[in-house]
Amino acid sequence: MCTLILLRRPDHDWPLLLAANRDEMTDRPWRPPARHWRDQPDVTAGMDLLAGGSWLGLSDAGIVAAIMNRRDTLGPQAGKHSRGQLVLKSLQYTHAAAAAAALGADLDPAWYRSFNLVVADRLAAFWICHRGDDGPGRIETHRLPPGLTMLTDADPNDARSPRIRDYLPRFQCASAPDPEAEHGWSAWTDLLASRRCDAAGDPGSAMTVVTDRGFGTSSSSLIALPAVRGTELRPIWLFAPERPDQTPYQPITL
After folding, report:
1. Are 95 and 123 in contact (CB under 8 A)?
2. Residue 47 belongs to what H/E stretch?
3. If residue 189 lies in a helix (H) or strand (E), which one and from where to where?
4. Which alpha helices (H) appear in 50-185, and where do they start and end?
5. Nearest-10 Cα torsion for 246, 72, 128, 209
6. How far apart are CA 20 and CA 87, in angstroms?
7. Exposed, middle or buried, 162 (CB in 10 Å: 0-12/13-18/19+)?
8. pLDDT, tens digit, for every residue of 154-171?
């Protein structure tokens, strides 16, 4: 399970702030965010070397896309397309609304294992969901409201997820990041690095996951999109290439 935190503030200089911890099998090869795809030279994203897709990406048009598995669907499955390709598909569009509309209409749920896909820009954010055997057998598209949204392998802000139940109130109480300040993300990065588990001691309930079965948090990202393109404010992507409790964030060249 991965974790994504999205803060939407429509009238702010920074209307979209995003934080994400990637949880994956530790032996699955990948490359840090960069311009890896010749056919999409305007896309900066992490590259999954096993299937060629991505878990999180940002386009020069100002669209960010992130994919998460839903519960109990870790890894590829024979006969199914890679869910990481959906990030690259999302970043082909010029606006998040156009991407959400196209994907919601065109995707065949039979091609994929279940997923949560988030597509957002400075104007709007969308949750595109494939519930698999637990759902209605179609792709669902929902607009995410302003404010704070936390997403893991269940629904947005779903308290049935131990991680959301424990950490969503903490993010809601934390100071909102200031992307222009030297330590402006510290309230969020402290939470992203937390290994605090729930009362049952489930390591998967922590924000930074550490297990003895070859699975855990492999990287972390912080992304900020400004309100107006072409001004002195530019998108920001800070990336920790290992566990965020052990590795500092560094800026990605966009």
Report:
1. yes
2. strand 43-48
3. helix 186-192
4. 85-90, 96-106, 162-173
5. -10
6. 14
7. middle
8. 999 999 999 999 999 999
Task: Say which DSSP state 75 is in.
Answer: S
Contacts of 230 (CB under 8 A, 6+ apart): none
Strand ranges, E, within the chain: 3-8, 16-25, 30-34, 43-48, 56-59, 64-69, 115-120, 125-130, 140-143, 147-151, 215-225, 236-240, 250-251
pLDDT of res. 13: 94
**CA–CA separation, 197 and 51 (whole Å):** 31
Distance separating alpha carbons of residues 239 and 161, to the nearest angstrom: 25
Residue 78: per-residue pLDDT: 65
* Tokens representing residue 248 in the block: 């500092």
Residue with tokens 């934390």: 174
Q: Is the pLDDT of residue 148 over 70?
A: yes
pLDDT of residue 202: 82
The 8-class DSSP code of residue 176 comes to P
Q: Cα(70)–Cα(117) distance, rounded to whole angstroms? A: 10
Query: CB 133: neighbour CB atoms within 10 A?
Result: 7
pLDDT digits (tens, 9 = 90+) for 49-105: 998 999 999 999 999 999 998 877 666 666 678 899 999 999 999 999 999 999 988
- Distance (Å, rounded) from C-alpha 36 to C-alpha 161? 34
Q: Which fold has domain 3-251?
A: Penicillin V Acylase; Chain A (3.60.60)
pLDDT level of residue 231 (50, 70, 90 thresholds):
low
Instruction: Show me where the domains of the chain are located.
Output: 3-251
Q: How do 3-8 and 16-25 pair as beta strands? A: antiparallel
Chain centre distance of CA 53: 14
Q: How far apart are CA 218 and CA 241, in angstroms?
A: 7
User: Which amino acid, residue 167?
Assistant: Y
